[in-house]
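Possible regression after last week's pipeline update?

I re-ran a chain I had predicted before the update to compare outputs. Posting the input and the new output here so someone can diff against the archived version. Not blocking, just want to make sure nothing changed silently.
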Amino acid sequence: MPSGPVGRSAPAYGRRRVGEEPRTSYLLESRMSLSPARVFAALNAVPPPEQASPVMGRAVVIGGSVAGLLAARVLSDHAERVVVIDRDDLRVTGVRPGVPQGTQLHALLPGGLLHLERLFPGFRERALARGAVEAPPEARRSYLDGRLKVVVPGDADSLSGSRPLLEGLIRQQVLRLPNVTTVTARATGLVFDDGGAAGVRCDVDGVPGIESADFVVDAMGRSSRLSDWLERGGWDRPAARRMTVRLNYATALFRRREPNPEFPVVLALHSPGGSSDVAGAAFFAVEDGRWMAMMAGYGDNRPGRTAEDFVRRLRDQFPPEFGDVAGDEMLGEVQTYHHADSRRRDFHALKRFPARLVSVGDAVASFNPVYGQGMTAAALHAACLSTHLRSRPALGVPARRFLDLQQVVVEAAWSTSTSADLALPHVDGPYPRGYRLSSWVSRQIITATVTDVTVARRFNDVVSMCAHPSSLATPGVVLAALRANRRAR
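New output (post-update):
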């Protein structure tokens, strides 16, 4: 592991010379004059550059998660060399120890699939060749309180596969890039120099060292230690917010008899406060001829902890399709997972922040996983990073443009998930101003998605992170929802 002078491994791109005034024009541009909805739409349309345009020498990504890998993919277009540091050997396939939730059901939302296809052309075909299952709108079924929701023609396709398959394919594509390498090590801190990050302290089998860097990306996930490292280096800690959700997951695999099932993706949700102690269930067709089924509960409700309980509840508490899956052979044991809270770190609000440093993915904000936003949010963070670096920023000043763009994404995902979580009986706030009215409007819109195609399409765009949540809060959508619910009654 390199242990020489920090920052000497490559030219100091973007470093400010003594007496040189920092460039500020791009900072003015980052104070977004466009509405969050237009920023969100623009990020969802960001393609990778047609050719590499290096603005730095050596970039280091801490964490080989999906967020870290996508950041490395973006950096490969803007750095001469990219190093990904992770405690796991990223060359090993399968479930990684660093991803304890890897055995659980994961959703790749249509918005995330679109970004992956842009970053890795042909991603869909390669995933399908490995056994992933394509799920166009007509092949997806969704229930709300036992009522089958309308199909929305023209909705984007989704892709069904296990987390190891999807993450493994992303990792393979990234590690094939000629300027990306990996280091199996434990990151222990940052080195700061000239007002910014200049390297990452690492421990390889008990031997300390430093990976020098012209740019550092924190992708350490929910347990990121960046706040501690900032404080240790004389910087401010970001404000941290948490919302307790106490989500309990149970996931099981079943043998799938149909090679091409009519409905490879089926979901069923129960409204909060109802009679059921199960918040919802879902099953997806995944690779190797299997069904992956999931059940979730909140608080003290832990449905499906045993195979017998899992199968019984699928048969008794959900539509017939779930009973059909439960009748197939269960493969292995039920895997459980507990998600205590949603959390976010407000790096964007810090008045002092190091240059040459950003944070992505769950290290910034992690949400209730029942909404399936994780991988798609990570892809949007990568789009923020791409937009920032393509402006050829001065690296000697904080990445405010990136932080402003990322904040739009974080706030959109956070407001979507936490507003739904606030409706849970065991969650007691904090409630935002106007919550009672906004909650009533949300219930009207969600109820209308059962019967009204127009409202359902707008809702699906927001849930899949293809559109900003503000697109639902319009008089037209609310009136359409009220009319649909009146007709349904």
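Follow-up from reviewer: compared with the archived run. The chain is about 30% helix and 25% strand. Marking as no regression found.
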